[in-house]
Amino acid sequence: MTDPVSEKILQIDARLLKPDEMRSPDELFRELMVRVRRYHPSGDLSGIEKAYQVASEAHKDQHRKSGEPYIIHPLCVALILADLELDKETIEAGLLHDVVEDTPITQEQLTEMFGQDVSQLVDGVSKLNKINYKADKVEMQAENLRKMFLAMAKDIRVIVIKLADRLHNMRTLQYLRPEKQAEIAKETMDIYAPLAARLGISKIKIELDDLSLKFLHPDVYYDLVSKVSLKKSERQAFVDSIVAEVKEHLADAGLSCEIEGRAKHFFSIYKKMVNQDKTIDQIYDMFAVRVIVATIPECYAALGVIHEMYKPIPGRFKDYIAMPKENMYQSLHTTVIGPGGQPFEIQIRTVAMHKTAEYGIAAHWRYKESGGSKGGEGGEEAKMAWLRQILEWQKDMSDNREFMSLVKSDLDLFAENVYCFSPAGDVKALPNGSTTIDFAYAIHSAVGNRMIGARVNGKLVPIEYVLRNGDRVEILTSQNAKGPSLDWLAIVKSTQARNKINQWFRHERKEDNITKGKDMLLSYAKEKGIVLTDYLKSDYMDAVMGKYGFRDWDSVLAAVGHGGLKEGQVVNKLIDTERRDKQRHITDQDILEAAQKPKENPPASSTKTRSGIVVHGLEDVAVRFSKCCSPIPGDEIVGFITRGRGISIHRTDCINVINMSDEDRARLIEAEWQAPGETKGPAAYYAELNIYAHNRKGLIIDVSRIFTERDIDIGSLTSRTSKQGTATIEISFQVTSREMLGRLVEKLRNVESVIAVERKTG
Questions:
Q1: Which of 102, 345, 358, 554 is catalytic?
Q2: Which of 3.40.50.450, 3.40.50.10700, 3.30.470.20, 3.10.20.30 is the CATH number of 415-508?
Q3: Which long-range contacts link 414-421 to residues 24+ away (Cβ below 8 Å)?
Q4: Is 102 a catalytic residue?
Q5: Whole-model pTM above 0.90?
Q6: pLDDT (tens digit, 9 = 90+) per residue, 575-603?
Q7: Between these two residues, 477 and 272, which has the higher pLDDT value?
Q8: Out of 31, 49, 68, 101, which one is annotated catalytic?
Q9: Second label for 299, Cα 20 to 30 Å away, from 125, 335, 432, 539?
C-alpha cells in the first residue's frame, strides 16, 4: 500500500500495536527499568532484575504465534504496568505471570524466591487463566468472571495485571486465525474494556476499545481511520488555536493551569455515529480540550471564564465533581461553540482527578513522592462498593446466564446516569431512564419490596414515573405490602433493581416454582409419550445442570416453573444424555447396515474428507446435513443412521430429534465437528431463519439490505402476515460459520419493527 490514506492507516496501526514487540528482550528490559526509575522512590530494583532473569530462563525455549521469543510478552505486560506507575511487586508479578502456568517453576519456588506478595499475585493471575471449558460458552464466561471478581476481592492488582495481559494480547492479535481474533475481540469489548472503565483505568480502556473495533469491524475501522486522518492537520491547527486562546484568558484571570487538546479515540467516534445515526461528516466534536488546575474552586472559576469566552450548548454541561461517576471519575464537562460555529468539548479537572481518570483503581498502588509504599486518599471504600455488590450477586445466583446478563449490563457505562435526591439530601446515581422503583431499590431491597407508591418533588406520581436530574424522591412503603410485581421487571432500568426483584421471587416463591416446574416437565413428557422417571438419573440431571449453569436440580425445576427455561429443553437434554450413554449398545448389525447399503443420491461430503464431521464408530460413511434444522459449525449436533443414505446430521435441538420415537432414537449416533485445521469442510453451509416482525412498508427491503451489505445470496424468501399484523419471514441462505450467522442475526434483530429472529429447528 503506497497511497497517502493507506500510509496513514499504517501509522495508526503502528501506534496501536506499539513498537515494543519489534525490539530485543534486553532492549525492552532496559526500557522497563528506565520507566520504573522515573517514578519509583527507591533505588533498589533488584527484585525486578531477578524476576526478568527467572522469567527469561523459564521461557527460553518457548515462542509465541508470531515466532518471537515468549519472554517478549511478559516484558510488554510489565511495561504496560510501569506506564500505570504500579509498585515493584506488581511489575515483578507481571514479568512472572505465566511461569507457573507454562514452565516447570512451582508456586512454592516462586514464594521462596520473591516472597508471599508477588507469589500470591502470580497465583491469582494463573487461576484466572485456568478457565473451565464447559459445553456452554455462557457457562465458561460466567465462571471466568466469577474467578475474576473473587481475585479482585483478594487483591485488585491481580485484575490490573490481567488487563495488561489482555491489552498486549490484543496488540498482537493479528497472528491468530480470523475466527479466533473475532472471538477474543468480542470478549474484550464485552468484558475487559468495560471492566477497565469500571475500575477507572482509561489508559487501558481506550486502547482495548479501539483494538476490539479493529478486529471485530475492520472495514468500519479502516474507513474511520482514513477519514479521520484526511483532516488531521486542519483539526490540529484549530485545537492549537483554542488551547492558546483558553490559556491566555485563564492566565489573565490569575489561574495557573495545564491545557492540552486531544482527539477522541476511534471507538468513541464509532459509538457516536451508531447511537446518533450520523456519518463522520456530521460528528463535529471529534476532539476535546482538557484543562488541569490545582484545586476544586479553580475548576469552577475556569468554567466561568470559558463560558464567558464561548457560548455553551444548553443541556451539554455535566458536573462530575459534585456527583462523581461510579468509578470515581471526576471532571466538569461542557460543550461550547468555538470560532466559526465549531462545537467542541472542554473538560476541567484537578491534578488528583486527572490521575484518577487515567489510572483509576491502579492509582492506589502508585508510589508517592514522600516515599510511601501503598496507600489511598480516602476514596477506596466507594471505589470498591461496586465489587462488593458483584460478590453479593455471586452468592445469590446459581444461574450463570442471569449472572452474565447482570454483569454485562452493569459493566455497560455508555448510558448516562441520572442523579436524584432522597428527602435527606443523599444523591443516588441511576441509569438514564430509571423509575421510582429503581430509586427505591437503590436505597435498600427492603424499601423496594415494601414500596406502594412515590412522591417526586412533593407530588404523588405513578411508580413507573421516569426520573429526571435533580428530582427529589420520597418512597412510600407499607408493612402490609405483598412485595414486588412481576410487571416491575419490564419497568425498571437498573441492574440492581432487576436483580433484587428476581431475588425476591426466587426466594419467596421458590417452592411454588419447583412444584410448578415438576408438573410442567411431567405434562410435557406425557404429551410426547415419554416416561420421565426413566431419565431422571443423577448423571443425566448433572448434564442438564452443567449445560444451563445451575447448581442443583431444584434450581432447574424452579427455572422451568418461572419461565426461565423451557421444559422441552430439559427433557431433550435428558434424553440426549441417555442416548449418548447407551450409544455403545447400538448393534454391529445396525452399523454394518448403515455403512454397507447402497447410497441413493450420495452427498458431496464424507466423514473424513469434506464434511468436517467426525461420526464416532464409523469410517468412510456418507454424511449429509439435514435440511430440517441446517446445522453449521459450532452447533451441538447428533447423527442419525438412515436406511441406505448414510448418516444425516441434525442439531440436538431439532424438533425432529426431540420428537423421535424410541425406535428411531436407537439409531442416533454421536457426532461432532472436526477441530479447525483438520479439514477444510464445505465452503458454505445452508441456514434458515424465521424472522417475526410487526408488518410495515419496506420491511422486506430492509431485511434484504442486511444480506446485500454482507454479500450473502438469498436462496429463498417467503413471507406471510397474520390477522393481527405480525409478519413471518422465512429466509434461506448460506454462511461460512456460526459466528457469521450470529453477527447476521444480531443485525437483523436491530431492523425496525423486528420482534424476534430464530433459526429453524424442523
A1: 102
A2: 3.10.20.30
A3: 414/271, 414/275, 417/325, 417/326, 418/467, 418/468, 418/469, 419/323, 419/469, 419/470, 420/467, 420/468, 420/469, 420/470, 420/471, 420/472, 420/473, 421/470, 421/471, 421/472, 421/473
A4: yes
A5: no
A6: 877 776 665 444 444 544 544 444 444 43
A7: 477
A8: 101
A9: 432
